[in-house]
Amino acid sequence: MDYAELFEKAVVVSFSVSLFWKIIRHMWSSMDAEKEPVKVLVTGAAGQIGYALMPMIARGVMLGPDQPVIIHMLDIEQCAEALDGVKMELIDGAFPLLRGVVATTDVVEACRDVNIAVMLGGIPRKEGMERKDVMSRNVLIYKAQAAALEQHAAADCKVLVVANPANTNALILKEFAPSITDKNITCLTRLDHNRALGQIAEKLKVHVSDVKNIVVWGNHSSTQYPDADHASVATSSGERSVRDLIADDKWLNTEFITTIQQRGAAIIKARKLSSALSAASAVCDHIRDWVLGTPKGTWVSMGVCSDGSYGIQPGLIYSFPVTCQHGEWSIVQGLQIDEFSRAKMDSTANELIEEKSLAYSCLG
Q: Which residues form the active site (predicted)?
């Protein structure tokens, strides 16, 4: 081998080593680079759920342990002082992922450039109030907030409506924020889904993480249908059907359903206050799975815009079983629906159709 050939080989080897180290340095640099902060709006932020939710968002429970966040908090003028108190506590918490806090009563400032909007704010039904009174006031709130999100939120903003009536509030928001794709407007039924998982786990004396694929169909109301027909439990001998393991159809078709439907009222009776901790946890679960994806072979319940699946009127915000991947949800198809389930699913759909009509009449 002559000197020219040796020199050529040396150059090739040197270039290869140089390229290798460049790649390694780039990988290290990429690992060290911090993600851009995600701006998360929470309306009604001075309330109970907001107070429970804020530290969860700031700690990465919602978006992951490596995702910085900027929290935008919105509430009404009467709650401005309490809102400032929550901001102080967030600062005092010294959360490593928290890159900023906006506390405001100005809906435009609150909505500016937000990537995720969690809508907790709304008028709750109180003693002596008619259903139409609650609906008419919430319709106006969600119409105004829809307009602000439409004009000022990020183009790909994901919206989760929590305030009741959650499905219909989400429907109104969808109507008045037409530039936000229907796929990006959802409502919370994950709390009901989690409650159902918890009841099955308690009944079977297993860990809740071993139970999966409950379905909550329909409205987040007392007509919702928690369905265990497709659920399974991980056992030492493999996955087993919930129905087979419980072996009590009467319980699954009666007490189990009514317990989930009335769980919120039971908590109010016991605690003298509505669900806050469990609701905040469910909000984080909903957003986390939506953004980061559901585990393979597992679905969750989300209130989403119906595409006609399972015979549900298109356009209704209805709770379906969904899987999520790459920030998109998809309705699980092909589940077998028996006569009992069909009646329950149609009943809650009919309530949503009535609510839609009532909401539009309030706009009228």
A: 220 (proton acceptor)
